[in-house]
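Q: What does the assembly look like in three dimensions?
Context provided by user:
Components: two
Sequences:
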Amino acid sequence: MPSAGLGLKPSHFAEALAAPADGLWFEVHPENYMVAGGPRLAWLEAVRARHPISLHGVALSLASDRAVDEIHLERLAELVRRFEPALVSEHLAWSTQPGMYFADLLPFPRTSEALARIVANVERAQEALGRRLAIENPSHYLALQGHAWDEIDFLSELARRSGCGLLLDVNNVFVSARNLGASAEAYVDAFPGELVLEVHLAGHSADPALGQALLVDSHDAPVAPEVWALYERLIARIGPRPTLIERDDKLPAFGELMVERARAQAVLRGRLARAA
Amino acid sequence: MGTSDLARFQQEFAQALLDPAGPMPPAFAVYRNTVMKGSIDALQANFPAVARLVGEEWFRAAAAVHVRASPPRVPMLLDYGQDFPDFLAAFEPAAELPYLPAVARLDRFWTEAHAARDEALLETAPLAGMEPDRLGGLRLRPHASARWAWFDVPAYTIWSRQRRKEDAGDVTWRGEGALLARPGDAVQSIALDRADCAFLDACREGRTLAEAAEAAVGMLPGADLAALMARLLEAGAFSDEGWT
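A: Here is the predicted structure of the complete assembly.
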């Protein structure tokens, strides 16, 4: 039975380790564990001994205009071999240029050429990791020129050609729909449920300069009511999927995150699920 | 749009990210801000003593200058900031804080010790009964996590008070050395004198204990070598691998 998990931060390690194990799983950014040794790896080993973990990468830069960085891929493969995660996921985005890393998930025009490049990159990554990847839908801030593909069609075709699965971030759907003037409900309803391997829920915030006209996928707040509503709508349609409460900034007490996690767990068990 | 167009799009986008004056739509600022914030957050996390000394506002303004000049090269942000101590040494607004680059180096030492390869500490039992001549011919290898340096400023006193979140307080102005190492899970640190530093330098260069002792005494005549050795062993300075 798919269950709800939490993003794991070093300051919560002790509580994560002690938390009851009823389906609780944890997700980490593998880049934070790409170290030669020391307590970080030891902590993650300890958590892994009690709970499943998921590796959610931010730096494969699959939508880059070039092939995946083999050195980075090997670092990731080493963690996959060591921790045997339940799932490995990445983003429909780019974040590197030669010799430079940008601490963000950057957009690109969805063209057939971009699709071919990303398919090749996902195939190479899946081969090196020996795993099916789940690829996450991005947050959008800009209406870029030059899209030849609708995003859901693009992701579906990527999955069809590469064999990858998808990670549906419901907060990203909400933020993007608001910023670009589209319907979040229509997006969630059209998303291919059979490809969804994991769902993400996170908080967002209003842009400090532009206010409500621009929502930022800041992961620094509780999941918004509108996002919970979209999530319930999604789960009612496609059935339960492993669901993550993502929090990366303004970290609250572990117990507060566990309350949000319990709410997702309740939706998965159908207690709150409503017909769409 | 061909793949070369994709490449051009990404090059231009990347340039605009690091150029605050570039003409872009207002929403583009989200990417620029996120990239800057992520890199500055990383520096603040990696240099906590520096940040506490100068205050968050000053630190983040200085960090922003550094990020634009030397953005992260790899996605492991724990490793970001290798050049930050040198940046601070050349940073005009930091000129009145001559100890700041040294404090930054100690913060960097902490990160390196924290993430270093796991390695067994030197077993001292086999050394205990050794003849002095045999002992003097040994070559000890510093532990993978060991980082040390001599500073011409009281960097270690200043740094350790900041790491313990104590008041800066009065500081005797003198040179100080420091050793950081991770004998177990936690990084530990001790103050070093010039003899300690010379001894460790010699070991790193692959010289024998007799030669290292000579270097230590040469740096600080009258250095108590037995106490020096006990201090370094206790601090976890040496590896159990590779000694001969």
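Follow-up: The interface with chain A takes residues 1-3, 5-7, 9-11, 13-14, 17, 25-31, 34-35, 37-39, 42, 71-78, 114-119, 144-145, 182, 185-186 of chain B (CB under 8 Å).
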